[in-house]
Amino acid sequence: MRRSLPPVACRVADTLIARGHHGVIVTQPPTPTAADAARALGVDVGAITKSLVFLLDEDPVLLLVSGAHQVDLRNTGERLEGTLTHAPAAMVREVTGQPIGGVAPVGHPTNLPTWVDTALSEHRELWAAGGHPDTVFRTSFRELVRITAGLPIDVD
What CA–CA distance (Å, rounded) separates 32 from 42? Predict the structure, then answer.
C-alpha cells in the first residue's frame, strides 16, 4: 500500500522541484540518530546530512552537517565571524516550519542563511531529512549547495 507524504514533506518536495531537484522523498521508519539513519539506508554515517539550526549572534542560521560530525561551536562561530549557540527547539520549529528530527535543508517559511559541511563532499550520495521524521531524500554535495544557496564550511 502506498503511503501519502505528510503535508510538510510535500512542501519540501515542491521546494526541491522548484530548485531543480527531482523532488523524490521516500518514507522510512523514524531514525532518531544519524547512525540509525545510516544503518536504515545502508550508507556511511558521514553521508547523512543533519539540518541543524543555530543562532549566529542573535540570528538563526542553518548548518548542514555530516552525520559523522559534531559542530564545534567556538571554531565554527569564529569561521562565521560571530558567536554560535544552539537555537531553542521552539525557534527551530518556528523558523523551519518542520518538526525536530525531520528538519529538511529546504522548504522553510523564510530563507535561512545556510552553510554546508565540507565533509559531505567526500560522499557521492547524501541523504537528508524530508521535513518530517520519517522522510528522507537523496542528493549530492554539489546539488545540496546549489538548492540551498549554501556556502561550504569546515564545522569541526
Answer: 16
And the C-alpha cell for 25? 522523498
CA distance 48 to 34: 6
Q: Confirm if 34 and 156 have CB atoms less than 8 A apart.
A: no
Nearest to 138 by CA among 16, 24, 19: 24
Q: Rounded to two decimals, what is the model's pTM? A: 0.95
The string of pLDDT tens digits covering residues 10-48 is 999 999 999 999 999 999 888 989 999 999 999 999 999
Mark 85-111 as b/e (b = at least 16 C-beta within 10 Å).
eebeeeebeebbbbbeebbbbbbbeee
Percent of the chain with pLDDT over 70: 98
Q: ∠ CA 100-107-54 to the nearest 5 degrees?
A: 50
Q: What angle do CA 44, 45, 48 make, to 5 degrees?
A: 105
